[in-house]
Structure formats: C-alpha cells, structure tokens
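Hi R.,

As promised on Friday, here is the backbone we talked about, encoded as structure tokens. Could you run it through your design pipeline when you get a chance and send me back a sequence?
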C-alpha cells in the first residue's frame, strides 16, 4: 500500500468515525417529555396543536400530551408526583398550593431553571406562583370575578346599572326589579358563586384577607354570622335563586331560569366571559358590590392557573424549551390564544394584541378586575374550607334551614381545625 493510499484510507476512516459520532450524538439527544392539563375540548385542541407545532420546531423532542376533565385530575396528579412518576410539566391551581406547604420539593424552583424565560411576568404576577420562597408556577391567564347581568331584562324593566354597585344598591336594584315583575329572580349561581360573594363581603367588612399568611381567618365568628344572616334573608325573599334549584349546578349558565332570561344577576370569572356572549339576550358586566370605603375588595383577582415543572424531570432543558414556546414564542402564544384567559406574560400579551386576538368585551372585563384589584384576597383557599362554607350556606339557605349563628359556629370551629394543618 502506498503512503498516499494509506493517508486516503485514514481520512475515510476518520470521517466515518465522525459521522458515527454525530449520529450517536443526535440519537442521544432524542427526548420525550410529558405535558398534563385539564380542561374542555377547545382547550385540549389548542394545547395539542401547540405541542405539535413545538415538535416540528424541535424534532428531537417528543411531547406526550395527557389531558382530561377536571374531575379526578388533582388526585391523579398528586399520586403520580408522590410516586415519582409525575408528568414533566403540568397545569396547577393556586388553591392547591396549601396542600404542598410542607413538601415543596416536588416542584422545580423556576428561578433556578437554566434558560427559562420568566422576564415577561411582573413581580406581582410571580408572587401568585410562589410557595414560601420558591417560585413553583408560571402564571397563565389573568383572572378575576365580576358580576354579569341580563342587560335585555334590565332595559325592559327600566333599571339603570351604571357605575359600580354597593351591597345596598345591589339589593335595591333587585327589589325594584321584583316590584315591577315578581317572577324575576335577582341572582343565581353555583355554590361557589354564592361562596365567593360571601367571602368578598367578609374581607370588605374586616379589611383583612380571608385567610392570612399565618393560616388564620381574617374575620370572627360574629362576622360570618352577620354575613350568613344577610344571605339567609336574600334566599328567603327571592333576591337569590333558591338553593333547591341551584345546589347541584356546575355553572350558572346551566340554570334554566338564567338561560330563559328570568335572572337579573350572576357572577363569572373573566376567563368565562366569552361563554356569556352566546345567549339569546344581551349581557353586561360590572364590578362586585363593595362596602363604601372598604380597603380590600375581597375579590379573587390574578392568575389562578399556572404550569409547574416536576423537580424530578430528567429532561429539564426540553421542558424549558416547551415552556418558553408556550409563553413567549409567537407561534405557541397564538395557538394557545385565550384558552386559559388573557396571559399575564407581557411578551405573550403583546403578541396577542399585535394579532388582534383580544376582543373589546374581554378588554372591558379585564379593566373591571383591574379596578377591583386591591390586593391578595386570601393566602390560602383549601378545598376543605370551601366545602365547609358551602355547607354553612346550605344550612341557612335551604328551606327549613337553621339560623345563621349556629351555622357560623359550626363552620368556624371546623374550618379553624383544617387551617391548623397549614401552619
């Protein structure tokens, strides 16, 4: 073999080795991550479409999507996380944070994740995603609770719902409506949609968060007894829809009386505003009633949904790319659109505005919650406490129910025991 041939063979061999190494490197970079969430059909379609677009942009990364309805999602997720088999990135609710107060190690600290872009969120938004000192959640849509009313009915009855309501003017409007048409129902909603206004009233009355950072109530047993007594009167005089009709409702818009135009008021999270534009009647929106001079509105304002990253994810770099794509990449942001509300990420928001993807009604609703936002209404929202509040409302609101004082006493004592677990 000549020296020249030997050199050629050596170069070919070296080139072959380089190709093999490159192929091996490409193969090694293949990654599979899991993305989990709950929601309805439109949310599923939008999120799957975003995952597919992401995989086209990053062909070495496979995203396995795991989605379902809300029922059973939480129990399944915490079981998986505890067993070390949880998804890499998953949708989560702020109200569940309290359950992990003593075990935040399941969540990645997002401030320490290399390459994760959190610069689009304000410090206030990031506060909602913080558990203790650890940032565990990337906030999704801005949300808040507002009143929705049947404008067609109000106009027919000659009612003026202009400007913001106090609790007194709220009750007065309904009495005026019923005087003109006794068949009118003042307000209807699910148990949550009775519970949230009661919480709002208590926070406005006391000027303190519903539940403090120290997991203590901001109100006394006497305060909630007064609130329950007010609501009991409204159930009795027809201001509120009877609980017998609404106790099993999953959403206010499933109440036949609301759908048939007989109800004047309900309430809604801003993320559900589009749902209220589909009726046969015209609707309007206004702020929750306020006690004159109240320092806190007591209204849930801010993102209540977020995506979290599993601290045990073995492909953190791939998860980071997916998160950045969903929150800040024009293609990802446009595909997800408003399926989880109007994004609180400034970079994502600017993309939506630039592409005319935020309608005028949603902008009005967003302004209402901005006007309502007076600070964090509660630092905890345990499911057990919420269920106890619903029980108290049912005790006073159902026909033949008990008085407000004993219902308040039972709620306060049982709920206080639940809160001890969060200290």
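Update: got your reply. Pasting your designed sequence below so it's all in one thread:
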């Amino acid at each position: 073999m000549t020296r020249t041939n030997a050199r050629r063979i050596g170069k070919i061999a070296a080139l072959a080795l380089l190709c093999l190494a490159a192929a091996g490197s490409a193969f090694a970079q293949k990654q599979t991550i899991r993305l989990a969430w709950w929601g309805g059909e439109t949310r599923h379609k939008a999120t799957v479409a975003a995952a597919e677009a992401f995989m086209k942009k990053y062909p070495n990364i496979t995203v396995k999507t795991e989605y379902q309805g809300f029922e059973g999602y939480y129990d399944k997720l915490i079981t998986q996380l505890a067993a070390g088999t949880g998804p890499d990135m998953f949708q989560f609710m702020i109200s569940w944070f309290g359950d992990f107060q003593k075990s935040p190690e399941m969540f990645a600290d997002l401030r320490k994740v290399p390459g994760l872009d959190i610069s689009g969120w304000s410090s206030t938004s990031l506060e909602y995603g913080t558990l203790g000192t650890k940032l565990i959640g990337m906030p999704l849509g801005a949300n808040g609770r507002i009143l929705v009313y049947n404008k067609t009915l109000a106009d027919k009855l000659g009612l003026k719902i202009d400007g913001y309501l106090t609790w007194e003017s709220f009750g007065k409007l309904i009495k005026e409506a019923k005087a003109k048409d006794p068949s009118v129902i003042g307000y209807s909603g699910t148990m949550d949609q009775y519970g949230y206004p009661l919480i709002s009233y208590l926070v406005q009355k006391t000027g303190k968060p519903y539940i403090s950072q120290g997991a203590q109530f901001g109100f006394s047993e006497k305060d909630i007894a007064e609130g329950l007594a007010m609501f009991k009167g409204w159930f009795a005089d027809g201001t509120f829809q009877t609980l017998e009709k609404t106790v099993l409702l999953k959403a206010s818009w499933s109440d036949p009386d609301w759908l048939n135009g007989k109800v004047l008021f309900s309430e809604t999270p801003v993320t559900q505003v589009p749902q209220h534009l589909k009726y046969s009647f015209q609707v309007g929106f206004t702020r929750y009633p306020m006690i004159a001079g109240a320092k806190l509105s007591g209204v849930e304002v801010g993102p209540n949904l977020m995506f979290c990253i599993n601290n045990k994810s073995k492909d953190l770099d791939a998860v980071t790319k997916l998160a950045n794509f969903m929150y800040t990449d024009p293609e990802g942001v446009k595909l997800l659109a408003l399926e989880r509300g109007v994004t609180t990420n400034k970079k994502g928001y600017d993309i939506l505005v630039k592409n005319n993807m935020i309608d005028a009604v949603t902008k009005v609703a967003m302004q209402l919650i901005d006007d309502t936002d007076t600070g964090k209404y509660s630092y905890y929202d345990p499911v057990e406490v919420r269920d106890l509040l619903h029980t108290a409302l049912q005790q006073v609101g159902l026909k033949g129910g008990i008085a407000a004082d004993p219902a308040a006493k039972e709620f306060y004592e049982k709920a206080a025991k639940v809160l001890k677990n969060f200290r």
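One thing I noticed while checking it: Confidence is low (pLDDT under 50) at residues 3-7, 9-26.

Thanks again,
M.
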